[in-house]
Amino acid sequence: MTDKQITGSSKAHRNGIEALSQKRNISERLRYIWKLLWNDKSGLIGLILFLIVVFAAVFAPMISTADPLDQNLKISKMPPAWHEGGSWEHPFGTDPLGRDLYSRVIYGSRVSLTVGFFGVLIAGGLGMIVGAIAGYFGGRVDDLVMGIINMILSLPYLLFVVFIAAVLGRSLLNIILIFGITDAPIFARVTRGEVLRIKELGYIESAVCAGARWPRIVFDHILPNLIGPLIVLSTFEMSAMIFYEAGLGFLGLSVPPSVPSWGNMLSDGRLYLQQHPWIATYAGLAIMFTSLGMNLLGDWLRDVLDPRRRRARK
Amino acid sequence: MFWIRVEGERENEEIVMTAVLEVHDLVTKFYTLEGIVHAVNGVSFSVNKGEILAVVGESGSGKSVTMKSLLGLISSPPGKIESGKAIFNGSNELGDLLEYSPQQLRDIRGGDIGYVFQDPGSTLNPIMTVGEQIAETILRHQVVSREEAYKKTLNLLEKVGIADPVTRYKNYPFQFSGGMRQRVMIAIAIACEPQMIIADEPTTALDVTIQAQIIDLFKKFQKELNIAVIWITHDLGVVAGIADRVLVMYGGRIMETAPVNKLYENPTHPYTIGLLGSLPRLNEDGYKRLVGIKGVPLDASKEIKHCPFAARCDYAFERCWNEIPKLAEIDPEHKVSCFYRVEKGGSQYDR
Amino acid sequence: MLRYFLSKILQSVLIFLGILLLVFAMVRVTGDPAALMLSRQVSQDDIEEFRERMGFNDPLIVQFGRFMSGAVVGDFGNSLHYKTPAMPLVVERMPATVQLAVTGLLMAVVIGIPLGILGGFKPGSIFDNLGRLVALLGQSVPNFWLALIMILFFAVRLGWFPSFGRDTWKSVIMPAFVLGLPILGRIVRLTRSAVLEIRDEDFILTAHSKGLELQTIYRKHVFPNVAIILVSVIGVSFGYMLGGSIYIEAIFAWPGMGGLLEQAVGWRDFPLVQAIAVFTSVVVLGLNLLTDVIYAVVDPRIRYDR
Description:
The complex is a heterotrimer.
Chain A: H1 16-22, H2 26-39, H3 41-58, H4 60-63, H5 101-137, H6 139-153, H7 157-168, H8 172-201, H9 203-209, H10 214-250, H11 262-270, H12 278-305
Helix pairs in contact in A: 3-5, 3-12, 5-6, 5-8, 5-10, 5-12, 6-8, 7-8, 8-10, 10-11, 10-12, 11-12
Chain B: E1 19-32, E2 35-48, E3 52-56, H1 63-70, E4 79-89, E5 94-96, H2 102-108, E6 113-116, H3 130-141, H4 146-159, H5 165-169, H6 178-190, E7 196-200, H7 208-225, E8 228-233, H8 236-242, E9 245-250, E10 253-259, H9 260-265, H10 270-277, H11 318-322, E11 328-331, E12 334-336, H12 339-342
Parallel strand pairs in B: 3-8, 3-9, 6-7, 7-8
Antiparallel strand pairs in B: 1-2, 1-4, 4-5, 9-10, 10-12, 11-12
Helix pairs in contact in B: 3-4, 3-6, 4-6
Chain C: H1 2-28, H2 33-37, H3 44-54, H4 60-72, H5 86-121, H6 126-140, H7 143-157, H8 173-199, H9 202-209, H10 214-243, H11 246-251, H12 257-267, H13 270-298, H14 300-303
């Protein structure tokens, strides 16, 4: 009789990237990935949700029913189609300026995904370089960089984001830059942690001893180990950025008010909550849907890419 | 009395056991996402009171899993003990460890059977004082007051060679060196004067001088407290220094078992010979090539119906590839599972 | 150990100076702080006069010196909107925010830790799945949106709680819950993963090999190590809540610092914004220091010099 309490992890698979690289061809790899997804269905759900959002963003013009910027005060604040007074021409109803809510929600996905994607790209790129330098060189450089990073991370994030957004003004570019720069420290810290860990493992030393030069060390040894945690982090941070964009939009600090963004829609709907709750509701649902999908996906990725390591979340 | 197991059948149970543990046909497998790992494939052996049995084998030979299976220390899922019997002659009764309930196993662990683990760096709770970690074992199995447990712990610390026990009781593991930490682990293992200790590579992570000290410590306890020890190792030098009998494992099975002198004088199984032959020796002159064992370790994810060592064996013949050899006695107390040796009467002098 | 604290305090002081620099710089990033702070319809002359009055024409070093010397005594000038000193306005609002954050944190911890432990103890069980669902929702639902929905439902339709303000003891429940929800999510997940991780540690195997009862193993070996992991996260979360209460306070018209921030941003009252930023940061810094202290108490490895 064995004691089920002795060690809890029943996830008996190895590091996914290791296993993947050992498969011989594309179809074997795909099959392995499918097996992993099917084994942990929540990951599958996350992926599906995420793909739906991407689909909506990419094919927005084709699946919208109207132009999201088209104002028509005569039909403002119309309720959703299944209520009295609604019509299927505007399935989710209209906002105070008479714009079709359904289309705005669909187009809103573009803003969110753009902010999330490019934000993470900038934050990741910056963070990775800084973190890698700190980790690789160690010593005083590391102390200095980590000191600055810890300082930035110990500040109340939202407060400073609001502050900066208020100063810089409303534009998509500003938002992307703000998130990209303020989130870089997280990526830097994780990258540095991983680089230090890799250094400890010793194969950098052996590669150097074997005469490997700089680019080879980076591409063959360091990067493959970084990919896993960074992908996981990117997924979560992207979800967070979508959140923050919505939050800023809610306060009126995100993209300009006419642009269909989920945050803006929440802000539009806030005043009409009692009589016309749908204006804000659907945007909120969209955010939740997206966030849910990305969190599930991120969890699954984390389980697959490093099932045994310490969580690197801030 | 020593039981002979050739076919795995039991003989009369009424005869009094002097062995403290008898294991019959233990099979343990792990069901993982990548396939089934056949870790232990029919292992039978016994341990006598007060003897030190060394279990030798390379990584992946199933030595640790065998021992952990006995005490229910295998995580399940994904592990599963498929079959086998493990009769333990404990202080209370005779029973089959593999049939015990978790509660019964818990009573035995630490009480009748102690365990010493390999890496003293991670096997002690980093935020609990060392004294407390020893004392809690005592308090768990013996009905004593905290005061008495404290005194016994101080006593134990001294016994394992840790000076100034009163101060050291309150210290944390990070304040000890590796060797000292291992002594603490040993103190924990013998705290309740168990019948048997399973030591899983206790000196592998320590340097050689400390290793010698630890070995001496074990021998001392064997003599004083008559504790049986199963000592798992891959180091044949250590085996020579401490064992009474030896078990050689490969591919989750037992290849050879013999009293230590007989094993070193007359190694019979090709694997054993390979292991002993690969040891560099100081007393040889000239330059001699280090002899390894050809081939690669067995892939435990494949279930095999032939001798696990066949691929690496110089003497493998047809039968070796068709059947699994069973342990057969070639000498009193010296058993080997090898068709070549047993059937063809081959010896190590054949080349 | 003394060295540990001294270095932490020194770090905090340096961070404080860094914050002052940051706050000072942020208002000047666009080049003309006067234009930033005044509304569009103001004439060029008025802007010029404003610039003079606020000292924006002086060299940056001088301005920074003035700012710093004011900051260390708590003088951030006057709020542009209220025309009274900025800092006292902020301090006055602090208790409300603290009440909100503390209540929210309490809720998150009291519900979150047990759920996380249950999940780690029996992964895959009903409780675990429930806990993970709660955590997932808590971290996926935009809490400002949820606040709106909850007001609509619980306050307006059902009338159980007031929909805004800080009048009765019931007032704090909804805003605190919504504020603490993401934290709840994080705590459940973190606790669960900490329990799972600690369970796999070698020393837990040792504890099993001693034959200790499960309850004992959890109580004496698993939990203390989990607590160490949780301490820093809880400390950081509290800081996060203090700084991130802006939406919640805005929606619930809660008279705290976050609500003040939202208004100040709307009025372009940047001296007030600066005051809020610095004050909140200092509080958060203090909290981090406190967390470090608690950490040192709980983890003996820190107590002795490495």
